[in-house]
Amino acid sequence: MSIERQAIENLATLARIAIDDNRIKEISQQLGSVLDLVDQLQAADTSGLDNVANPTQESQRLREDKVSETDQREAFQAIAPDTEGGLFLVPKVID
Amino acid sequence: MHNLTIAELVEGLKNKAFSSTEVTQYLLTRIKSLDTEFNAIITVTEAEALKAAQAADQRLAQGDAPALCGVPLVHKDIFCTHGVRTSCGSKMLDNFIPPYNATVIENFQHSGAVMLGKSNMDEFAMGSSNETSFYGPVKNPWSTDCVPGGSSGGSAAAVAARLAPGATATDTGGSIRQPAALCGVTGLKPTYGRVSRWGMIAFASSLDQGGPMARTAEDCALLLNCMASYDSKDSTSVDRSTPDYSAHLNASLKGLRIGVPKEYFSEGLDPDTEQAVRAALTHYENQGAQLIEISLPNTALSVPAYYVIAPAEASANLSRFDGVRYGYRCDNPQDLQDLYCRTRAEGFGEEVQRRILIGTYCLSAGYYDAYYGKAQQVRQLIKQDFVNAFEKVDLIMGPTCPSPAFKFGSKGNDPVAMYLEDIYTISTNLAGLPGMSVPCGVVEGKPVGLQIIGNYFDEARMLNAAHQYQQVTDWHKLAPEGIQ
Q1: Which residues of chain A make contact with B236, given a CB cutoff of 8 A?
Q2: Of the residues A65, B60, B176, B178, which has the fewest C-beta atoms closer than 10 A?
Q3: pLDDT one-digit tens code per residue, A52-90
Q4: Is B99–A72 a contact, with Cβ atoms under 8 angstroms apart?
Q5: Between B113 and A93, where is the model more confident?
Q6: C-alpha dihedral (B65, B68, B69, B71), degrees to nearest 10
Q7: CATH code of domain B6-256+462-477
């Protein structure tokens, strides 16, 4: 299977990964090769089967909605690329 | 001293034959002199190790030492360590110093173990050869032009090269068992939910499971005793008590029913590897076990199902790496989109990007049911194969990998060639079952592994079977040339 240039560009946008033009052909071939592999699934008869999200099928536990951690904002922000006044900084979004 | 097992170290430390400081200093020196060749360790934590060893020696002197007090170990660089860089083998986290410990790390600290360093791995655990690490590939101590396997290649190579007696590792599709097989060590992937995933950097959350690597099954039992715990901070952690995995190591194998799946001995299996595995099975027969041919008819669907589910979950998990809160950020972003897109293009390596793109494709509008939904249904088929088999047998055995360690670069540019390396290991992750690899022979001067698959939460029986095999064989004692 080959994937069209536009589809790769769309995927790159959805995944928020900048992809150089000169890499698109190679990525298209490699993704096509993986999709050929996973297309073998279509031949399997899975009618009436449940989707398995958790292999041991244990139900996910819920916990009470109460504070269980102390505030560690300073420790967490100490490792951030850019902060100011307790906030994480990103480039200006609104003019 | 580097040939001592964990069990022997525990004994020697308790009897004051040597101190933890002595062992720790010895292994740190050994890492410094040997690891320039193997590249198994990303970060050596010398100061922390010596401090922990001194504290362990005090506790040993006072006589209140916990189970692994003073035992030096290496931790895969996927487990968050408070104050120690945790890179996950990626440029994205090259500057990431976690403000907390993973539960597994906490467990080892409570147990008195000493951390020597953080081991190399495929980037975000995506790979079967350790070639995708940002820190360069790990070399297989048995043959340095060959891969150590992956993704836990650094842990496996460290144990094989006697840089550490044991290591932690993680397994999403074979990442404990395959490198254990290729490096000639013993490794165990527990039942999904047995070991806490909290603080273990996520790849594919419904498949990821941490586990131990060491040179013997007896040592793996000691490590698993410490690693396995119920953890309320991991919503998929299983709330049941942890047995003493060392308690049944010496049980007799008489009457043990071993299933031998015919699909694991078909086309693609190297004949010499097959011979080594068959010889191991004969050992089990000689110890009173019964071999029963079984079928796992949907085995061939496991690789395609995995390469939908794992990338889909990875694409969601890795969306957190956005250059805002921690980790890598690109220089001079023009706007927010540019910040995200360039940070991720520059911070992630090619294989990680490829898997994120595949996962994004499989989850995108119009494709979700055909790919992700279908793969989850096929997962049910694969699981049912095992459930049926375990009605007739106690354990399942076969090869861990189709062949011994391959040369760097030999899988070329086609990702699918590398993905097929995990053909025998992936289905246990999809089913959530425990699996282990035990050294069972040497082919072309390189080790091969016997895979032992158990029923849910039956790790003690697997360890018993592996330990009994290691009582009558010496494969696990062999060291790579120049390492003795």
Answers
A1: 54, 58, 60
A2: A65
A3: 888 887 777 888 899 988 999 999 999 999 999 999 999
A4: yes
A5: B113
A6: 160
A7: 3.90.1300.10
Q: Is A44 on the interface with B (CB under 8 A)?
A: yes
Tell whether A9 lies on the interface with B, counting CB pairs under 8 A. Answer: no
Compute the distance between CA of residue B315 and CA of residue B246 in angstroms, rounded to an integer: 39
Q: What part of B 145-204 touches A (C-beta under 8 Å)?
A: 191-193
- For chain B, what are the domain ranges? 6-256+462-477
Taking the CA atoms of residue B24, residue B155, residue B221 and residue A55 in that order, the dihedral angle to the nearest 10 degrees is 150
Identify the pLDDT of residue A62.
83
CB contact, 8 Å: B373 with chain A? yes
Please give the pLDDT value at position B421. 85
Q: How many CB pairs under 8 A join A and B?
A: 176
Provide the 3-class DSSP secondary structure of residue A35: helix
Active-site residues of B: which are they? 76, 151, 175
Question: What is the arithmetic mean of pLDDT over B432-445?
Answer: 98
DSSP for B305-359, written as a single string = HHHHHHHHHHHHHGGG-SSSSSS---SS-SSHHHHHHHHHHHHS-HHHHHHHHHH
Partner-chain contact B192 A55, CB within 8 Å: yes
Q: What pLDDT is recorded for position A63?
A: 83
Q: DSSP state, B79?
A: B
Quick check: pTM over 0.90? yes
- Provide mean pLDDT across the span B289-299: 97
ipTM of the complex: 0.95
Determine the residue of chain A that is closest to B330 in CA distance.
A81
**A24/B contact by beta carbon, under 8 A:** no
Q: What are phi and psi of B46, to 5 degrees?
A: -60, -50
Residues 6+ away with beta carbon under 8 Å from B241: B230
